[in-house]
Amino acid sequence: MSVIYVLLTISIIVAICFFAAFIIALKKGQFDDSYTPSVRMLFEDELIKENTKKSILTKKD
């Protein structure tokens, strides 16, 4: 029965550590920009195609 108390205590300590890390990351602004990455994913292929076309044109010239 004492093992359950030890495991419960350790799990609560780990949960508090993860919560504290989340709060610190939140205060530092890590989660501020949530729109740009989702839009960047949609247009990334076009940017890569344009860059390869430009590099192909410069290599041929």
Automatic annotation (TrEMBL):
The keyword Transmembrane helix applies. The chain crosses the membrane at residues 6-26. The keyword Transmembrane applies. Keywords: Membrane, Transmembrane, Transmembrane helix. The lineage of its organism: Bacteria, Pseudomonadati, Bacteroidota, Flavobacteriia, Flavobacteriales. Pfam families: FixS (PF03597). InterPro entries: Cyt_oxidase_maturation_cbb3. This is Cbb3-type cytochrome oxidase assembly protein CcoS. It comes from Mariniflexile soesokkakense. It comes from the Bacteria.
